[in-house]
């Protein structure tokens, strides 16, 4: 797929503070604290990113686990879903009813999940978001799949670069936070499958029409050559005289006088 995230994600739910989040400001961030629970899931908000061949955004995530049991022993994940219909559009339809494993499977399909706890109780993650087509939101969530110690987990997620806008937890489920950019029709058309299918169809039809016209012209030209090669005589052709002498240009015989 054109969208990949080589990262982990942010966290937050019961209270999420958004700072410096308006479009055009640098380093918008989300801060959150949540008490983990068995088979829990939390929508954490997110950011809107543009597109780039390398990466479109960089996030710094600070993790602070207050529990006694290492998170390595639990299945706690930071996951991301881009705003396309077959990603966030699909999982958002049953966000409250789908299982943790179903949500995690959807994130794994986009290579956008990271298990927490592998670096210790306190550490920082750097996330690079790759997105080669379109401009769209990225929704981030915290998942605890299975049993986990009920203890506080604090996070701060800061957009170091690339964020066009941000949105808070439990918002933008059915709409986009992305600003309207004056990118021209080509930016929108080039990322739409229907545009390329229509373009291919037009090229095929134009090629078939050109081939048909070329064949018709060659056929007409061939018929014209056949017609010009035959002798066309208008009127009655001259007849050769029967007198061989006259015909060969000999003078008439003169009768001798007696």
From TrEMBL:
Keywords: Membrane, Signal, Transmembrane, Transmembrane helix
Signal peptide boundaries: 1-18
Domain of life from the UniProt record: Eukaryota
Spans traversing the lipid bilayer: 193-213
Name this protein carries in UniProt: Uncharacterized protein
Protein's organism: Durusdinium trenchii
């Amino acid at each position: 797929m054109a969208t990949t995230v080589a990262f982990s994600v942010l966290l937050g739910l019961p209270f999420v503070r958004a700072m410096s989040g308006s479009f055009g400001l640098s380093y918008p961030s989300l801060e959150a604290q949540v008490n983990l629970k068995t088979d829990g899931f939390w929508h954490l908000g997110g950011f809107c990113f543009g597109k780039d061949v390398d990466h479109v955004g960089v996030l710094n995530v600070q993790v602070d686990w207050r529990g006694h049991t290492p998170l390595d022993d639990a299945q706690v994940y930071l996951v991301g879903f881009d705003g396309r219909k077959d990603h966030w559009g699909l999982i958002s339809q049953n966000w409250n009813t789908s299982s943790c494993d179903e949500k995690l499977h959807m994130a794994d399909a986009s290579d956008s999940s990271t298990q927490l706890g592998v670096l210790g109780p306190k550490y920082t993650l750097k996330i690079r978001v790759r997105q080669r087509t379109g401009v769209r939101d990225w929704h981030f969530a915290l998942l605890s799949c299975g049993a986990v110690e009920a203890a506080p987990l604090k996070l701060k997620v800061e957009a170091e670069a690339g964020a066009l806008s941000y949105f808070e937890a439990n918002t933008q489920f059915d709409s986009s936070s992305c600003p309207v950019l004056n990118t021209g029709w080509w930016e929108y058309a080039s990322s739409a499958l229907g545009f390329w299918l229509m373009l291919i169809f037009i090229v095929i039809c134009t090629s078939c029409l050109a081939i048909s016209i070329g064949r018709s012209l060659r056929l007409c030209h061939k018929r014209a050559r056949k017609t010009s090669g035959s002798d066309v005589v208008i009127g009655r052709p001259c007849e050769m005289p029967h007198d061989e002498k006259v015909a060969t240009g000999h003078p008439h015989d003169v009768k001798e006088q007696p």
